[in-house]
């Protein structure tokens, strides 16, 4: 006789998911932060299940000048219903575990994914409304400019850099989705994937692709020569042998026309947490390579745009060859960064 009962591990994961959903109510779910020269420590909005927290008053004051609506918890019905929705899901997961039916895991997974999609749509709608519906009588008006913050990642808004990322509660929700997916895998032993073009297969593949996109390692962005501007000296980047780029932990990308400029920016912005450094390969025009593992030579006949006079190479052999040719000396990344 076919066994339609949940496995013990699946029931444990359902109860664990319920616990995480309850815990989510007490932690911020999403964070939107703003960085600008006049606010070196940044401004932050923390979106909880039941309120907006953080530098709300300061941000409301700034928004007034550009005609954006002020932010108040009571203006959003989501903060009233979301704690009940999360609690409801937690209760449903516990009931499904106690009912002990295999379909319960599938029901939990599908319903939670639908909730996630609807929440993302609502979040986008909220961002769009606040970024586009501006007061026509605002003190500061930039024709054609909208101030919609990014759904996820980084976006430049005038002189502010806006970052949008999950907070503790948001990562808890993501973990719940993963746990529910594991339950489906455990209970159905990949049978859902044996039939082609089933709706469940499509749904699962979409979840996996979205997860990989969200968690994937951010890569460098090629420098557009003669178009991109150096974020330190403000000169156009025109030489594909000496450019550089860094990516912060928040995902913002800065580009430079010389290693000297990137190091100068690093020293002037010590509070900025850098995740990756890239440098142009001297032997290959406009090709960026990881700066930490590159091989360097300096001085001699090397002349770079801002007189940093350092050339980087992807291999030690090329660095040695060009060092002899250009009468330069070998150096390394840690020495340059000091």
Write the layout of secondary structure elements.
Elements lengths: L7 H17 L5 E7 L2 E9 L4 E3 L1 H11 L11 H22 L2 H31 L20 E5 L2 E7 L1 H21 L10 H17 L28 E5 L4 E4 L2 H10 L5 E7 L7 E3 L4 E4 L11 E4 L2 H11 L2 E3 L1 H5 L1
Antiparallel strand pairs: 1-2, 1-5, 2-3, 4-5, 6-7, 6-8, 8-9, 10-11, 10-12
Helix pairs in contact: 1-3, 1-5, 3-4, 4-5
Q: Could you characterize the architecture of this molecule?
A:
It contains 9 helices and 12 strands. The chain has a 5-stranded antiparallel sheet with strand order 3-2-1-5-4. The longest helix has 31 residues, at 102-132. The protein has helices at residues 8-24, 56-66, 78-99, 102-132, 168-188, 199-215, 259-268, 316-326, 333-337, and strands at residues 30-36, 39-47, 52-54, 153-157, 160-166, 244-248, 253-256, 274-280, 288-290, 295-298, 310-313, 329-331. The chain is an alpha+beta fold. Helices cover 43% and strands 18% of the residues. The model is unreliable at 211-216 (pLDDT under 50). The chain is flat.
Give the CA-based shape: flat
Rg, alpha carbons = 26 Å
Mean pLDDT across every amino acid position: 86
With helices defined by DSSP (H or I, 4 residues minimum), what is the helix count? 9
Percent of sequence in beta strands: 15-25%
The main sheet comes to: 5 strands, antiparallel
Compute the separation of the termini in Å: 71 Å
**N to C succession of SSEs:** HEEEHHHEEHHEEHEEEEHEH
Runs with pLDDT <50, length 5+? 211-216
Quick tags:
338 residues; alpha+beta; 5-stranded antiparallel β-sheet; 4-stranded antiparallel β-sheet; 12 strands
């Amino acid at each position: 006789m076919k066994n339609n009962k949940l496995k013990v591990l699946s029931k444990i994961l359902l109860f664990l998911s319920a616990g995480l959903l309850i815990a989510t109510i007490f932690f911020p779910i999403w964070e939107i932060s703003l960085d600008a020269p006049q606010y070196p420590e940044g401004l932050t909005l923390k979106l909880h299940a039941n309120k907006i927290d953080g530098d709300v008053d300061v941000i409301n004051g700034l928004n007034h000048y550009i005609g954006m609506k002020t932010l108040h918890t009571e203006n959003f019905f989501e903060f009233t219903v979301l704690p009940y929705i999360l609690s409801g899901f937690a209760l449903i997961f516990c009931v499904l575990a106690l009912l002990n039916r295999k379909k319960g895991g599938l029901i939990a997974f599908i319903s939670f994914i639908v909730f996630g999609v609807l929440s993302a749509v609502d979040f986008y709608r909220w961002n769009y409304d606040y970024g586009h519906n501006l007061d026509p009588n605002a003190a500061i008006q930039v024709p054609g400019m909208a101030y919609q913050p990014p759904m996820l990642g980084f976006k430049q808004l005038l002189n502010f850099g806006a970052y949008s990322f999950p907070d503790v509660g948001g990562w808890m929700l993501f973990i719940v989705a993963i746990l529910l997916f594991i339950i489906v895998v455990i209970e159905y032993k990949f049978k859902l994937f044996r039939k082609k073009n089933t709706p469940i297969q499509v749904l699962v593949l979409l979840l996996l692709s979205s997860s990989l996109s969200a968690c994937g390692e951010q890569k460098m962005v090629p420098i557009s020569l003669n178009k991109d501007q150096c974020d330190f000296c403000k000169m156009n980047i025109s030489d594909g042998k000496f450019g550089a780029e860094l990516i912060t932990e928040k995902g913002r990308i800065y580009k430079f026309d010389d290693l000297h400029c990137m190091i100068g920016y690093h020293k002037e912005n010590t509070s900025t947490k850098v995740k990756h450094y890239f440098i142009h390969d001297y032997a290959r025009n406009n090709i960026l390579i990881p700066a930490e593992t590159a091989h360097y030579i300096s001085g001699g006949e090397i002349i770079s745009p801002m007189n940093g006079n350092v050339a980087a190479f992807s291999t030690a052999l090329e660095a040695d060859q060009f060092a002899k040719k250009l009468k330069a000396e070998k150096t390394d990344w840690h020495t340059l960064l000091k």
